[in-house]
Amino acid sequence: MTCDWCGSLQSKQGENTVYWELPDGSRAITITETPCIRCDDCGMTYQTERTIDEIEDQLMLIDTKSLNQQLTFKQLMETPRWLKMNYFGK
């Protein structure tokens, strides 16, 4: 896997914790066990565009007021949706 930051071939998939502001700006939540890419050469840890889009879409489609302050990526993705798709997204 190639690192998007330095181009090294020493990157690999992993998981990390991220902090995300809710779409309404009311608060931020902690999302643990979030898929990420880790580069052994430059030390960068980041989410792919796909993972970012998944999180952003899910947060637009669910009742964010009922979310706990901290949850896993899997719990977030399994939260029941109010809408079938994000009509305001890409």
UniProtKB/TrEMBL annotation:
Pfam families, sorted: YokU (PF14122)
InterPro entries for the chain: CHP03829_YokU (IPR022451), Znf_MqsA-type (IPR022453)
Official protein name in the record: YokU family protein
Taxonomic source organism: Bacillus suaedaesalsae
Upper taxonomic lineage: Bacteria, Bacillati, Bacillota, Bacilli, Bacillales
